[in-house]
C-alpha cells in the first residue's frame, strides 16, 4: 500500500485537532493509502518535540521550512495563525506538496488569489479547514436541497456567534489585528459564508454593517496597558444569491451565551430546514402542510456516520468532523475523491468576505465581482 507522509505545522488548538484527526482517520476508515505521521513543527522546539512524541509523529522540527523540505513529507497541514498560511502554503506548493490549510485561507484577497493560482499551476491537491461542512447532517441538508425536497430555495438566514471575546478584559491577540485577518467576520463568519455557498450557491451582491464594540483591550491578560482594536466584533449582512435566493448572515464573538452557534435556516417554496452546530447531530425539517418542525437525528444511514457508530442518535462531535475532513483529503490524494473545499473554493469565501467589508465601509450594495 502506498504511503503518504503527513507533516503538521502548529501544536495549538487546531494542531491538536489535526493530529487527532490523522490518528483517528487511520483507525476509523479503510483508507487506500497508509498515513505516516512523518513530522511535526512548531516555533517552540521543545513543545514540537513533546507533542511529536505524544501524538505519534516520527520527527520534530523547530523550523517549519525544514518540515516543508523533509523528503518524508507529502502533505503539509498548516494550523498556525492566519498571516503564516500564505508563506507556508506557497513554500509547500513550490516543493510540490499537497496542502491542508486552516481557515481563513489568507490575510488578503491578493494572497488568496496567488495561493489558488500557484496550487492550480502546480497541480497539487489542496483543502481548507471548513470542517463543519463534513457533518453528515449537513450532507443530508445538501441532499434535500439538491433533490428539491424544499422546493425552490428562497432564503438563507445564518448566524455564527460565540462569546469568547465578550468580556472587554479579554486581552489582545493576533485575532485582533487586521493584518492577521482578525475579527469576527474572518474568524467565525468565514465558516458561515463557506456554508452558505456550499448549500445555496454563489452570492452575487451584498450590503453590510461591521461594528467594533470594544475599541481597546488589555495588551496582555490582566494588564492596564491597552492596545487599540480596529477589527469587527460583530457583522450583519444582506446577501443576494445567483439563483435568486435572498439571505442574511451575522457573526459576533461578543454574543453572551453562545459557544459554537453556527446556525442557519434555509427555506424553500415547499419546506424549511434548520441547523445549529451546538446541536450538531440534529436537523429540524418542516415540509409544507406540517404543523411545525420534525427533529431528525443523525444515524448510520447518513454518509460518514456509520464509520464511528452503528447506532442512530449516539452522536458525533467536533473531532469526528475533522476526521471526516481528513478522510476527504486522503481520498482526493488517492485520486478517488469528489470536489471539496480547496483553495479555489476558499478564495471565493475570501472574495465574499472582502465584498462584505467594502459594502460596510462604503455603506452601499457591492457586486461580489467588483472585488
Ligand atoms: N477550523 C476550525 O474550526 C478552527 C478553529 C480554531 C482555529 N482555526 C484556525 O486555525 C489556525 C490556528 O488557530 P489556533 O486556535 O490553533 O491557534 P493557536 O494559537 O492555538 O496555535 C497556533 C500554533 O502555531 C504555532 N506557531 C506560531 N508561529 C509559528 C511558526 N512561525 N512556526 C511554527 N509554528 C508556529 C504556535 O506555536 C501554536 O502552536 C488559525 O488559522 C485559525 O483561524 C480553525
TrEMBL record:
Entry protein name: Gfo/Idh/MocA family oxidoreductase
Transmembrane regions listed in the UniProt entry: none
Residue ranges annotated for the GFO/IDH/MocA-like oxidoreductase domain, each copy included: 141-273
Keywords: Oxidoreductase
Ranges where the Gfo/Idh/MocA-like oxidoreductase N-terminal domain occurs: 5-130
SUPFAM superfamilies xrefs: Glyceraldehyde-3-phosphate dehydrogenase-like, C-terminal domain (SSF55347), NAD(P)-binding Rossmann-fold domains (SSF51735)
Oxidoreductase found in the keyword field: yes
InterPro entries noted in UniProt: Gfo/Idh/MocA-like_OxRdtase_N, Gfo/Idh/MocA_oxidrdct_glycsds, GFO_IDH_MocA-like_dom, NAD(P)-bd_dom_sf
Amino acid at each position: 500500500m502506498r504511503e503518504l507522509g503527513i507533516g503538521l505545522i502548529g501544536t495549538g488548538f487546531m494542531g491538536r485537532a489535526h493530529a487527532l484527526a490523522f490518528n483517528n482517520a487511520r483507525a476509523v476508515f479503510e483508507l487506500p493509502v497508509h498515513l505516516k505521521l512523518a513530522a511535526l513543527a512548531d516555533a517552540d522546539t521543545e513543545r514540537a518535540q513533546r507533542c511529536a512524541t505524544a501524538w505519534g509523529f516520527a520527527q520534530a522540527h523547530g523550523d517549519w521550512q525544514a518540515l516543508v523540505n523533509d523528503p518524508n513529507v507529502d502533505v503539509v497541514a498548516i494550523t498556525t495563525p492566519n498571516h503564516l498560511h500564505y508563506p507556508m502554503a506557497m513554500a509547500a506548493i513550490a516543493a510540490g506538496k499537497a496542502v491542508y490549510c486552516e481557515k481563513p485561507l489568507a490575510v488578503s484577497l491578493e494572497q488568496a488569489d496567488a495561493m489558488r493560482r500557484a496550487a492550480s499551476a502546480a497541480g497539487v491537491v489542496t483543502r481548507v479547514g471548513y470542517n463543519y461542512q463534513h457533518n453528515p447532517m449537513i450532507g443530508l441538508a445538501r441532499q434535500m436541497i439538491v433533490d428539491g425536497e424544499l422546493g425552490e430555495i428562497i432564503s438563507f438566514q445564518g448566524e455564527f456567534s460565540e462569546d469568547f471575546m465578550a468580556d472587554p478584559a479579554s486581552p489582545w491577540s493576533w485575532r485582533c489585528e487586521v493584518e492577521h485577518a482578525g475579527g469576527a467576520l474572518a474568524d467565525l463568519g468565514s465558516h458561515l459564508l463557506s456554508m452558505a455557498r456550499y448549500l445555496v450557491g454563489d452570492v452575487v451582491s451584498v450590503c453590510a454593517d461591521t461594528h467594533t464594540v470594544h475599541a481597546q483591550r488589555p495588551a496582555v491578560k490582566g494588564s492596564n496597558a491597552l492596545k487599540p482594536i480596529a477589527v469587527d466584533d460583530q457583522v450583519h449582512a444582506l446577501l443576494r444569491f445567483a439563483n435568486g435566493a435572498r439571505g442574511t448572515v451575522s457573526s459576533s464573538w461578543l454574543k453572551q451565551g453562545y459557544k459554537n452557534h453556527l446556525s442557519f435556516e434555509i427555506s424553500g417554496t415547499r419546506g424549511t430546514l434548520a441547523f445549529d452546530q451546538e446541536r450538531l447531530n440534529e436537523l429540524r425539517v418542516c415540509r409544507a402542510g406540517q404543523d411545525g418542525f420534525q427533529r431528525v437525528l443523525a444515524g448510520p444511514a447518513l454518509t460518514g456516520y456509520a464509520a464511528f457508530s452503528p447506532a442512530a442518535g449516539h452522536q458525533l462531535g467536533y473531532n469526528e468532523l475533522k476526521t471526516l475532513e481528513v478522510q476527504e483529503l486522503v481520498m482526493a490524494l488517492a485520486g478517488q475523491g469528489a470536489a471539496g473545499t480547496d483553495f479555489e473554493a476558499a478564495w471565493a469565501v475570501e472574495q465574499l468576505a472582502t465584498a462584505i467589508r467594502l459594502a460596510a465601509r462604503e455603506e452601499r450594495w457591492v457586486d461580489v465581482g467588483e472585488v
